[in-house]
Each structure stands twice: as C-alpha cells, then as structure tokens.
Amino acid sequence: MKKSKFTVLSLITLSVAGLAACGNPITSNVNEHAIFWCTMGQDKRQALDACAEAFNQEYEGKYHIEILYQGGNYQDLASKISQAIPAGTNPTMAWGYPDSFAAFLGENGVNGSLLNLDQFINDPELGFSEKDGYHEEDGVKKSGKDDYVSAYYDEGVHYQIEGTYSLPFYKSTEVLYYNADYFNGVSSPNHKKYTVPTTWNEAIELSKQMIKDRAEAGWDNSDFSPLAYDSDANLFISQCIQRGISYTKIPTNSEDNPFLFNNSEAVALVDEISNLIKTGILKTKGVLPNSAYTSTLFTDEKCVMTIGSTGGSDYNVSSNFDVQVAPAPYSTNKKYVMQGPSVCIFSNDKAENQKSAWMFYKYLSSTKWNTLISLQNSYDPVRISCYETDQYAEHIAAAKEENADIKEKVSAVTADLKNNYFTTPVFVGSDVARDQVGNLFSYTCIENYSAKEALQKAFDNCIIGS
Q: How far is Cα 463 from Cα 466, in angstroms, rounded to an integer?
C-alpha cells in the first residue's frame, strides 16, 4: 500500500486514538442531541464515523451528533425526508442536493422547513474561525467562507429566497475514464494507437474512427459502442451549458416559467445525441436494459471510454486493463458539472439540536477532517486550505506512480477543474426538471419519440410535477 493511502487511513485512526487516550468515553447522555441522515455506503464511512466519534469526545456534555445511515440514493433520501417533515420525524441535519433542498424550503420560505444558516455563520461565537481552517494570500489569512472554494460555497446562497440554506459536504464532477491499453495499442485492432479526446467533437470523431477500424479488422461491433455516458441528465444539461442553450431559470413570480429547455436549439441537440445512440457511437445509462450503469459496459470492455462521476470511480476499475482518467470532453465552453452532496439543517427541531448540528458541520468541514473524508471517497474537499495539506499533496503525487489507484488518478485530474464548474438554478421544481430531461434519450431511442416530442413531454411533465 502506498504512502498516500497509508497517510489518510492511519491519520483517521490516530485522530480518534489521540482523543481516546484522554480517557473520555463516548456517551449519549447529553442535553443536546442532533441526528444526521445520509446515504454514504458502508465502505465509505470510516473517516466520517471517526470524525463523529472525535467530535462527540471533544464536546462531551455539550454537543452530540448521531449519524443514522439511510438506504438508497439521494432521491430516496429526499423522498423519505419529505414524508417525515409533516410528521415531525425528520432529522436535525441531512445531506442531499440543493434541488431537493429547494423543495423543502418552499416557494417563499414562509412555510419551509430549512433553517437559514446565516444565524450561525454570522454569530461571533459560533461562526467560522481560523481554527476551522485558513489559507494565506499575500500574507493575509483567509478563513471562514473565504477559505471555501467559492463555487462550492456559493451554491448554498442561490436559492429562491435570500439566505444560506445549505453548505457543501464534499464535491465531485464528471471525468473521462478510458481503457489505456486500447488507446496505447495493446488491445486495439492492429495495435493502433489513439489520442485521448479533449473536446466533445473529438470524442465523437474518434468513436467513429474506432468503429471503422474495428470493422476493417473484422472485429464485431454489434455489442460495442466506443463512448458511454453514465448520466443522461448530466449529458443533456452539460451540453446545454457548454453550448449556451437555455435550460432553466429562477422564476420571478408564480406565473413565470422557469423551464426553458423546450426550444429549437435543444431540439437539435437531442436529435444529434439520439442519432449517435442509434448508430452505436454512444450509449447512455437511460437506454441500457434496466438502466444499467455504463461503468459495467466499460469494465466488460463493451466501450473504451465512459464519462461518469468521480464519486463512483471505484466502479470503473478493471483487473483486465489499465484505466486512466482525463477531463470530460466538452463542447464550446469548458464547463464541468459540479456534483456531490451538501448539508442542510431543518427548522423544526429544537434550537439546541440545531446548534449541535451546526457545530458538527463546522467540525467535518474543517481542514483536517474534510481532507480525510474527501480523499477516502474520491471527492474534492471544500476548503482551499485542504488542498495545501501534506496529505492532499501526497495523494496527488501518488497519481504519478506506476501502481497509483483510481482515487489518486481522479484527484490529480480534478485539482485543476474547480474554476470551470457550473451549477444550475435552484428552485421549487428544479429537481423535477433534472429528472425529466434525464428521460429524453429513452423517449427518443426506446419509445421512438421525435426530439421535439420528447422535449415537449419532458416540459409538460415539469409543469405537472412542479
């Protein structure tokens, strides 16, 4: 096991062991007890569990957090919370995506269920401090929200009403996973070598050439598509943002239409991508049987490039070929989708529980802990100071080693992408829009809708669903 892996995992152990050595047993017999719901997989919890244990020991008798891991995905958790809120059985804090948080907030926030975090952020005693983390610029210490990657922090202040209603947990984006053996001529027809694409057009032209080369060599293309995309919604939305095609906007009033994607440019885009799918150049999750992940196509060698989340990097690992990572190919504007969970606190819990939840958020987002939690799970930390730690530097450096693992390769690529991330407007119904545009290519390629009909159906469903 290489140094960077050892550093991350051993520091998690040492961080808790150091507190345990003080002789303070963990106890839940405290006055303030906050509940945190998240869907983190069992194999990804080591650092977060260690963080919670350290927090509870350090603040014994004053603050306490209990993490209750929930099954399913982000959408499943959002649905569970929506059902729990009316009954008052929701947690104090939860992770998820701002699209879902906007629904909890409501159109005007009057009857919403989210707490405006500004009351904690601006509190001179409870707010952010240099203790949580800082970096220096021109000899000046930058702490608090100035130490956050601006795109990550700003996501939480762009809701339908003024305030800060979520803060980043850790973040991810999409990258290109590719079969380096195929590209280097080890396993390609006639051992031909290929250049990794940087733009969308290059990726498409390369895929066409690969199909041609395979056919000329007598290779079977019936179950092969060179390029795959693991999120239909991200494919459509990213192409819209990169090409300057209208997608959504925050409505100014209840009569204002926020769904802008039903337009002639989007029709041309959907038609273009649908033709790529129908001709075998591209596969997307939405057109595969049972909506299978394209990472499975990739590891089964039924494609040689797949665009997918950095948070799911482990699913793109194969023992049969060398996997390398590159930035996702882009169209006109170099913009990459920003993903990964944020955290909200609910307004209907007791004030002391809300305070505990806030203090735990500060703890997990501190330079030390956010670096450890993020690196364990192939995500990007939220603080600039995290990227200046020895642990992060060693993690990135390890990507150059011959036996580097996929998480290290991913971090080395995403380190330079943060200034090019985009987010989409958040409002009541933005989650519906994302779900609906994620169905576009199944409409056109499975149900035989025209591009215009598919967009109209998605638009109509947004109006009904919001």
A: 6
